[in-house]
Amino acid sequence: MVYLRHPQRLVQPTWSVGMLCALILFSAAPGLAWNGRVLKVLAGDTLVVSWQDTHRAITLYGIKSPDPQTMPGEKARKFAAASITGNRIKINPITTDPQGHIIAMVFRNGQNFNEFLLRSGYAVVNREQCRSSACQQWLRYERFARIRHRGIWADSEQQSSRRKKWNQ
């Protein structure tokens, strides 16, 4: 047992060094990457991940998908679910939102899944949130998907109304 020296007495720490190291290594704090398995896709940009015998909600950093209660949102959710459900992923947490969801970059087989959804046309860049160096390139991916009528952009009549609604 390790004792810390206090000016008047010896103090026994309540945390052992091993427990402290485990806490640091395995916590889901922003900045520490961890692995998990996707159990469910709630929306195109929100996943439920199994991690250390718990389920964690993950919101994809820097992107937005339409509300899953709408037809484009359901298309985005189904596309994301078909692409990632059941897969092992690497989660690189950036921050948390007020609901406690972890906001993260997600990697599947080494590929950035956030970027994959943008390129496929099932998400747009979240201009309020996206501050990483990749965001400028992501805007080009979004524009390219829209011009090529990929994913949710296949219905060209609703493109401008979707863009306005998502960025409110």
Please describe the topology of this protein.
Blueprint: E1 4-5, E2 10-11, H1 17-26, E3 34-43, E4 46-51, E5 54-60, E6 63-64, H2 71-84, E7 88-96, E8 102-108, E9 111-112, H3 113-120, E10 124-125, H4 135-147, H5 159-166
Parallel strand pairs: 5-8
Antiparallel strand pairs: 1-2, 3-4, 3-7, 4-5, 6-10, 7-8, 8-9
Summed up, what is this model?
The protein has 5 helices and 10 strands, in the order ββαββββαβββαβαα.
Task: Note down, in words, how this protein is organized.
This protein is an alpha+beta fold. It has a single domain, classed as Beta Barrel (OB fold (Dihydrolipoamide Acetyltransferase, E2P)), CATH 2.40.50.90. The chain has 5 helices and 10 strands. It has helices at residues 17-26, 71-84, 113-120, 135-147, 159-166; strands at residues 4-5, 10-11, 34-43, 46-51, 54-60, 63-64, 88-96, 102-108, 111-112, 124-125. A 5-stranded mixed β-barrel has the order 3-4-5-8-7. The longest helix is centred in the middle third of the chain and has 14 residues, at 71-84. It is globular and about 40 Å long. The termini are far apart.
